[in-house]
Design goal:
Two copies of one chain form a homodimer. The first copy, chain A, is of the alpha+beta class. In chain A, α2 crosses α3 and α3 packs across α4. In chain A, a hairpin with a 5-residue loop joins β4 and β5. The first copy, chain A, has two domains: 69 residues, Winged helix-like DNA-binding domain superfamily/Winged helix DNA-binding domain (Arc Repressor Mutant, subunit A); 60 residues, Dna Ligase, domain 1. A three-stranded antiparallel β-sheet of chain A has the order 1-3-2. Chain A has a three-stranded mixed β-sheet with strand order 5-4-6. In chain A, 39% of the residues lie in helices and 22% in strands. The radius of gyration of chain A is 18 Å and the shape is globular. The structure holds a DNA duplex.
Chain lengths: 147, 147
DNA sequence: CGGCTTTCTTGAACGAGTCAAGTTTTCCGG
DNA sequence: CCGGAAAACTTGACTCGTTCAAGAAAGCCG
């Protein structure tokens, strides 16, 4: 994903090309699953004068235009990643909150067909796996084995 | 689920049986997927003196003991339902936020086996279906058909 | 029934996210 | 290349779900 492509993506979505928006896109590319505060800090390395609010606005606009995807595991603040089009899901560490991408084993449209949907018109199935990341699992196992 | 069973469940979990706790359990049974504010109001019908904080504490204790399950779709406040043990998931209306239960079509442990988990130790797969509830879908369809 | 904990009440505080007003920037048409 | 309308940004205040802290009350074991 080149910088010039970001510009093209913005125009295709009917959005104006601005320095804050390019900086946010670069920050999201550099740090997938980062929260707003982290992205703000990253943006300010390149563009020190970008405001708090601008990052919220930009992330909102990018999310509405499907250039960026917002995820928010329970108990976490909003996190963002570049919209990649493939159907991937996320695994979240219960201990430290780290998020990683996972492909679903079932196929391209996993679980999108629920049995009884109560008349809901479903357009997306979001799968969140919960568990422990390698680091937290390692920290925990020895403690249980040697009391 | 009888009231006397709530008492038993609390004791089995090593929790003391209190009026606030029983009232919260009844409220959650009566209004599945309700948020904290709704549950607080429901509790106060029976127990007017129960505090704000008590409901948060109780819901936290019940969640930790697995008597109650906390769900939190992106963009929503925390919602609660009685822990029923079966493997069901949720469908959320993008428009009004309504939540309904759905059984997953794939089986008892749907999607629990992700392909590459990056070394995470996974203990749960949570599926959230997103779409429009019957009411919101109906409100929207005519508007698109008759411009 | 007494005493040790757990739980609850009260009241303040925190923080992610939003709202609002005014200024700056983008970009289209001339 | 320039002017002006619309979109985007800055600044600063504010909302609201949730948490923190200290002291009072209630549950439960012996």
């Amino acid at each position: 994903m080149e910088d010039s492509e970001f510009e093209h993506l913005l125009r295709s979505a009917g959005l104006r090309v601005t320095r804050p928006r390019l900086a946010v896109l670069r920050a999201v590319r550099r740090q997938p699953h980062a929260d707003t505060a982290t992205l703000l800090a990253a943006v300010r390395v390149e563009e020190p004068s970008v405001s708090h609010q601008a990052v919220y606005d930009v992330l909102g606009a990018l999310t509405d235009s499907d250039l960026v995807r917002r995820i928010q595991p329970a108990g976490s603040v909003a996190r963002y990643e570049l919209r990649v089009g493939d159907n991937h899901h996320h695994v979240v560490c219960r201990s430290c909150g780290t998020v990683a991408d996972v492909d679903c084993a079932v196929g391209v449209r996993p679980c999108l067909d629920a049995s009884d949907t109560h008349g809901f018109v479903i357009d997306e199935a979001e799968v969140t796996y919960w568990g422990l990341c390698p680091t937290c699992a390692a920290d925990r196992a020895p403690a249980a084995a040697a009391p």
